[in-house]
C-alpha cells in the first residue's frame, strides 16, 4: 500500500534506536526524507547509515543533542527544509517510589515528557496549517490508560501531555486544514528501554530481570513483546494521506494487555 507521503519531510526525535528508529525506518521506506536526533552522535550516525540503506533515494540528516533543550529543538527542526511530519519522543523517566521524587525530579520528568513535545509542536504547527498538511505523532505510553505505581513520573507527565493534545487536536483550524495530532501508546515493546525497566524492577525486588520479563510476557494475551517494526508501521500509517480523519486519539498497541473496554 502506497501511503502517499513520498518526498515529504519528517523530523523524528530520539531515533537512534528503539521505537523512534522504527518510526524513521517505516517512513524512509515510504520515500519520506528524515531528520533524526538522539544525544549520542555515534549511534545516531550509524542509525542514519542504516536508514540510508533502507532507501538510498531519500535524504537523511542527523542532528545530535538533547531534545529537552530548547537550542537542540531549534537546531533539529531547522535542519528540515519543512516539517510535514513530527514524531516526538524522548527517554521515559526512571521507575521508582513516590516518596523518592522531589520537585527537581518531577520537573525533569515534566520537562522531558510533557513540555518538550509541546514546545516542538508549538514551533511547527502554524506552518503545517498554512501548508494544509501536517502529521504529529507523540510516542507516550500504555500507562497513560493504565497507570502503574512505579511509573508515577511517567503517569503524571504524560497524563498532562495527553490532556493538552486532546484539546489542541480539536482546534478547528488544525483539523480542518488536514493537520492531525495523535498519541501512540506502546505496551511492552522489545527495546533497550524495556530491558532497563526489567533490570530496575529486578534490583528493587531482589529478583532476576529474566523472571520479571517472563512474568510480564505471561500477562500479554499475544504471548510476546511487540516488535519495534510493528510500532513503526502503525506510525507510518497515521502519517499517511489516509489518516487525515484520525486526530486527537490515544492509540494503544499492547498485544491485548489492557484489561478494559475503553
Ligand atoms: N519499549 C517499551 O516497551 C515502551 C513502553 C512504554 C513506553 N515507552 C516509551 O517510549 C519511548 C521510547 O522508548 P524505547 O523503548 O524506544 O527506548 P530506547 O530503545 O531506550 O531508545 C531511546 C532512544 O531515544 C534517544 N533519547 C533518549 N533521550 C533522549 C533525549 N533527551 N534527547 C534525544 N534523544 C534521546 C536514545 O538515544 P541517546 O541515548 O543517544 O539519546 C535512543 O535513540 C520512551 O519514552 C519510553 O518510555 C516504551
TrEMBL record:
One of its GO terms (molecular function) is 3-oxoacyl-[acyl-carrier-protein] reductase (NADPH) activity. This is Short-chain dehydrogenase/reductase SDR. It is an enzyme of class 1 (oxidoreductase). Keywords: Oxidoreductase. Coiled coil: none annotated. InterPro entries: NAD(P)-bd_dom_sf (IPR036291), SDR (IPR050259), SDR_fam (IPR002347). Its EC number is 1.1.1.100. Belongs to the short-chain dehydrogenases/reductases (SDR) family. It comes from Xenorhabdus bovienii str. kraussei Becker Underwood. Gene3D superfamilies: NAD(P)-binding Rossmann-like Domain (3.40.50.720). Pfam families: adh_short_C2.
